[in-house]
Amino acid sequence: MTLDTIRPADGGGQGGSDVDVMASLWEVAPFARLPGDAPNELRHLVEDIENPKRVYAVHKASRRHSFQLLVQKYVVQLRDGCGADYCHTPTCFTCRKRIAGRAPIRRYNATSARTLAIYLASQDNPENGLCPTLKTPKGPPAAMSSLVFTSNPKQPVRIHMGQTTGGSGQGGPPRANGKPVTNGVAKSEPKPRRAGVPRDQDLEGSTEIPGFSVTERHESKDYRSFAANVFGTVAFKMLEWLTPSGVDDMSRIARSFQVEVENLSRSRSPSPASRVTNGTKSPLRQNGARPEAEARSPELEQAQKDTWEKREPEDQPQRRSSNPSNRPGVPRRNSNAKVRTPGPKAKRQLSIDPFPPEVPIDDTYTGLLKSPRLASQADKNSKGLKTPNSSLARPISQLSSAGFFDDVSLEKMPPKSVDIKTKPSHHQVDGARSSGSASPKEQPASSSTPSDSNRSPAPVEHESDSGDERELPQALPKLDADVVDFLCDILQDDHTNEKHMLEPPTIGKFHNRTAGHAKPLKRKSRSRRPYPKSMKLEWKLFIEQTFFYILSDAQPLMNSFVKKGQLYDSQTLWYCMLRMTRVAPTLVLHSLWMASAGLFAPPKSLQSLRSPTAKLFPRHEKSLPNKEAGFLLSICLHALVAAAPLVTNPRDLYDMSRIRSHGLSLAGSGAVARQPSELCLQYDDAFTNDLALRLARRLFAAITTRRYFDEMNDSNLDDGDDKDEPDVLAPLFSQLDFLDMDAAYILNFSFPDRALHETRVPTLLLDWARAVMLSDWDGNPVVPGDGPFGGALALIEAMYKKRQALVLGDSHFRSEYFAERLDTVQMPVAWLSHTSTRQKMHLLDFPYIFSQSTLVSYFRSINFSRMSRAFEESSSLQSRMQAIVAPKSLIVNQHHKDVLQDLLKTASSRYLILEINRDNVITDAFDQLWRREERELMRPLKVHLGESDGEEGFDSGGVQQEFFRLAVSEALDPNYGAFTVDDRTRMTWFQPGSCEPEWKFELVGLLVSLALYNGLTLPITLPKAFYRKLLGEPVTELHHIADGWPDLASGLTKLVEWDEKDGLVEDVFARTYEFSVSMFGFPVTREMKPAPPSLSGTSKEAGDDSWPQFGQNGIPGTLVDGPEEEAPLVTKANRNAYVSDYIRYLTDVSVRPQFEAFARGFRTCLHPKSLTLLTAPLLQSLVEGVQEIDIAELKRYARYVGWDASHRTVRDFWSIVRKYDDTMKRKLLEFVTASDRVPVGGIKNLQFVVQKNGEEEGTGGHLPTAYTCYGTLLLPEYRDKEVLRERMAMALENAQGFGFA
Questions:
Q1: Which has more pLDDT, 336 or 1166?
Q2: How far apart are CA 688 and CA 690, in angstroms?
Q3: Which residues on adjacent β-strands are paired with residue 392?
Q4: Of 727, 695, 810, 753, which is closest to residue 570 (Cα–Cα)?
Q5: Which of 127, 151, 97 is nearest to 14 (CA)?
Q6: Per-residue model confidence as pLDDT tens digits over 443-478
Q7: What percentage of the chain's residues is helix, strand, coil (to nearest 5)?
Q8: CB 1130 within 8 A of CB 1075
Q9: Concatenated DSSP letters of 288-331
Q10: End-to-end CA distance of the chain, in Å?
């Protein structure tokens, strides 16, 4: 819920009513001031607060009051509706009735309506759910009908002057079903005093009337119903009972007992000296009673007052004299009364200044309330609310007494008008006179004389010298690490910190002090007596006020944690937030949520009159540039990180992140990691905290909003000289760059702590983004691109791009929760036709949140779907064609039938059939694949291999695997001059300037594409740079070429890291700025040139970057001619550019024609969008498989037919295989599965079956055979282990060709 938003009290014209609310709260709120034992360093820093919205007590009370009003409106909307003819609000009863038509509709009962109303009022921006045509409820709430008032004249009740009798709730326990309900209406004890309010003020101005009890009407309740037992309790009913209209209704009922009050007053004999005859207003009238209650006599009031004056000496403690103006528990201050004191005493000023740089952007009251202090300094010609002597009319009539100000009743009526007068500013700190604490000294009692309401207010003399009436609340203007430690230590030492569920509950200092650092702040030494509770309360109020004053406003917040234009280092900022969230988490998280509202203010460039987008946004006085917005965002994100449990082991951080990625709260037996239940529950408490989640949602929504502002700013035609601002996340990533030595390091932490923090912040940021996504996800793969969900995805995407700098692996970004709940077949197919926009995106647009096995499943589902569609289309056409050419069909002429069959043969064939001879594998493949239509290539593949030579192979996968193994091995043979193979790494690469035509490279690419499309692996080894280029990823770093050219990468690394203390680069390495390569025995050397900025060296039209090629007429002369001019040497200044250009020439320029032809063929069978699911390592695994074969894993996943694992032959088989070298392991795997590579995902995805194939008694007999299509080894039971070893070796060495498999 938008808790800090002051919601309108009625349907329209909310400005005046809100001003009245603020005026009322300003009159009764306890003012926090710096205690007297504060260190001197803080005395010179505190400042007065003149804006009531910046006072924490006022803010908290106004939130609760607004929530009550909102609940009341929702109850009316749910139960009664708006009455409009064309209402379209789903929750409005009128809309429900209109949609139902003539069908019967059931109206919500009081409990159901209250349950839904509380839920709707608790959402973010709850005003959006209100019906626009809803009328302000005039009558009492429906819940009032459940209350029964009963007179009890034998038990008098003390009624405080200035408060409404009914529903005040000041005393006894609630009563349901015949038991008292309201608190203290039927109890004679006075209500507890607020700390710092003298007893005489608590008793003075009260009267006594005969008591009455309030009972709740008996209603049948289903005690098994959760809603009835929670939302039907008195605590929730009071949300309706204690609204202004509810209190008015209870006041009307309470006035019916006034006759008994008057009879009681006549029976008393008040002292003539105390009788009042000057026409003072009735207390009930002062509190907003109806006109019929105004006939009360002054004598009666004085009699009631004397009654309590007689009781004061026996139970009133020692107290200091103070102004008897209206404080909690006493009559309201009279704004028209003037106080005559020894010093110039003025009434507490109501300064409601909007403070443009401090008010949230969604504040609807800017300009309605004006500070009198600032008004006196403003320009005389300025317009707006002026007048130091103006008054705010009609404060809030009545509020509930739910203890908003520590037992202060808010339903007290302020005067009908609140004078706003200027007063001198008091910046001095006086702890003994601060508000909210009582002095131990005894002060003279105060007295007052009421004045006639029909005349001008008469002076009232007081003997008090207290300055409480003219002292404003105080707070510190900024924080730093030392102040945070000091304030948090006080709350922990005094045990006044908030009780919460975050772990650990308290945090002490764990940073090291540096030399020359200032001494820690301490309170002034006091006597050895226990520290007074009143001083503890003063410190608590002051610290809460300081936290709220600073953390709820963007500018003071940034001033606190920014030093010399740079944010505090990440660990210091996290430490400060950690300490504050362990003493006051509710206050800290809510205040930061308020401050983060400034992130949504559009930049001034969009608000300017020249901007085309100026009309889209209202003008905001406070807008943040991206740099400051990034500062604010980073501070708030560190608060979220601090709210998580404090884990001291990096492995535990990773394990908990994996557990949370599955959407689990506890690590069960099947979880990816094992962690104790206690830690899992601590994580669950933190990441389900409502305030923390609300803050996270707002921060993530701000990311997409700020980027949208940047897009709009860039699209403005008249953007002047504005420079491009950095991304809003740039300050965060700059702060998380732990190698940045220029960061503002404030506190000194140990090296292990900093190493742990380097892992903690990125991991927990991903956890918070994942928590928001899981919380907001509705199960649909199409998700919002903006808002909290889109912002969380944007943060994850930005962190993924910088994962190396953040020391994050690919597994950190996985969120298996989504994959477990999405359809593996239909969802990726639907994604192909989805077009993402800024408002709607698809989860597969962010493939890194899925595991590799899941992405492989999606990739193969897309290929299988396309293959099935092609198969069904051809099958349908073939069925129709057979119906046409049938003997009794419409076509009679046989010649016409033959011609039709020939024409539709290609279109009606259900398979792509290749007839391959073992002696001409690559030639037959090229001939039959050349110029094939795309629809043919999409069909399932069937290969007839060697059938012309008598082989009997039935292709169910094994024959295809054998064909591709033979074809690719022949195509990549270096003897053909198209590819080269490194002697050390066995890596295959293109031959620069190859004499082979480009169409052959295209057909080789088609072969690889066809194998990948049909789910087969190939016996090839290509460098990672090759797969990066296929996916369109740049190849610019040395680690991109380290696997394909390890010696070259090592030499270039040494060149870059060379220290010239050991010699100059040009002298030691003696390299020229050239790229050299051997082409068929001819050395080719060319001076390297930088890539054109527009082309980046990736296009054929890259000018001088083109590489010389072999022509049809032989070797061009440019290959043997040397360079015309000598190339410059590589020096320290240009060595980085040299390395970058060398990598570009090696992987792009020298082989560009060959690679581009290969890429065209590779993309023939694959959907371009499906390739975006893959990373370079994953694509390499799909094409090549896994070359390492673990026999132990193979044995673990093997299955047996005809015997079990304990059989002697099976045990002998694994004993022999375990001793095989890598070559024999690959031969065994190829013999059984037709591939010497393990498929992607590991051996668990491989089918390996050992089946018994008879018994062999002698040394001869059958050799082991295999069904390669089904991964089945047919193994006879041999006489002993030696025979088995011999027969297995013979079978593996001579495995070629197929029988019937």
A1: 1166
A2: 6
A3: 418
A4: 753
A5: 127
A6: 333 333 333 333 333 333 333 333 444 589 999 999
A7: 45, 10, 45
A8: no
A9: T--GGGTT--HHHHHHHHHHHHHHHHHHPPP------S--TTSP
A10: 68
Take residue 864 and report the two structure tokens written for it: 């299988």
Task: Give the burial class of 922: count Cβ atoms within 10 A of its Cβ; 0-12 exposed, 13-18 middle, 19 or more buried.
Answer: buried
Contact 144, 246 (CB under 8 A): yes
- Residues contacting 632, CB < 8 A, separation 6+: 554, 557, 558, 595, 596, 598, 599, 624
Contact in structure between 367 and 382 (CB atoms under 8 Å): no
Q: Are 751 and 628 in contact (CB under 8 A)?
A: no
As beta bridge partners, residue 474 has 48
Per-residue pLDDT tens digits for 1213-1249? 999 988 888 888 888 888 888 777 788 777 877 888 8
Contacts of 130 (CB under 8 A, 6+ apart): 70, 73, 74, 77, 89
Sign for the CA dihedral angle at 715, 721, 727, 728 comes to negative
Q: 1094 by DSSP, 3-state: which?
A: coil
Handedness of CA 240, 241, 243, 248 (dihedral sign): positive
Q: Which three-class secondary structure state does DSSP give residue 813?
A: helix
Task: Inform me whether the pLDDT recorded for 242 exceeds 90.
Answer: no
Rounded-to-integer distance, Cα 955 and Cα 1300, Å? 10
Q: How far apart are CA 191 and CA 932, in angstroms?
A: 93
How far is residue 586's CA from residue 3's CA, in Å, rounded to a whole number?
12
Q: Radius of gyration of the chain from Cα atoms? A: 42
Residues forming a β-bridge with 1078: 1083
Residue type, 781: P
Report how far residue 328's alpha carbon sits from residue 194's, in angstroms, rounded to the nearest whole number.
Answer: 7
Strands 941-945 and 912-916: parallel
At residue 15, φ and ψ (nearest 5 deg) are -60, -50
Beta bridge partners of 213: 150
What backbone phi and psi angles, to 5 degrees, belong to 547?
-60, -45
Strand-pair partners of 562: 567
Three-state DSSP class for residue 1147: helix
Residue whose structure tokens are 């087969």: 1016
Q: CB atoms < 10 A from the CB of 138, how many?
A: 7
- Per-residue CA distances from 563 to 62, 757, 1258 (Å): 35, 21, 88
Both structure tokens of 1029: 């280029």
CA distance 1120 to 1122: 6
Is the pLDDT at 716 greater than 80? The verdict is no
Size (the chain), residues: 1301
Q: State which amino acid sits at residue 579.
A: R
Q: Which residue has the tokens 């609140």?
A: 418
Report the amino acid identity of residue 705: T
**Residue 1142 CB partners (closer than 8 Å, separation 6+):** 1052, 1075, 1088
Residues 868-920 have pLDDT tens digits of: 999 999 888 888 888 887 877 777 788 887 888 888 888 888 899 898 888 88
Spatial contact of 1227 and 1292, defined as CB atoms under 8 Å apart: yes
Q: Tell me the C-alpha to C-alpha distance, in Å, between residue 323 and each of 346, 446, 447, 1260.
A: 11, 7, 9, 117
Q: What is the tally of helices (H) and strands (E) in the chain?
A: 45, 22
Q: What average pLDDT does range 1162-1172 have in this prediction?
A: 94
The rounded distance, in Å, linking the Cα atoms of 924 and 153 is 112
Q: To the nearest 10°, the Cα dihedral for 666, 671, 676, 679?
A: -50
Structure tokens, 536 = 């503890």
DSSP states of 376-443: TTS-TT--SS--TT-EEES--S----S-TTSS--TTPPPPSEEE-----------GGG-TT---SS--
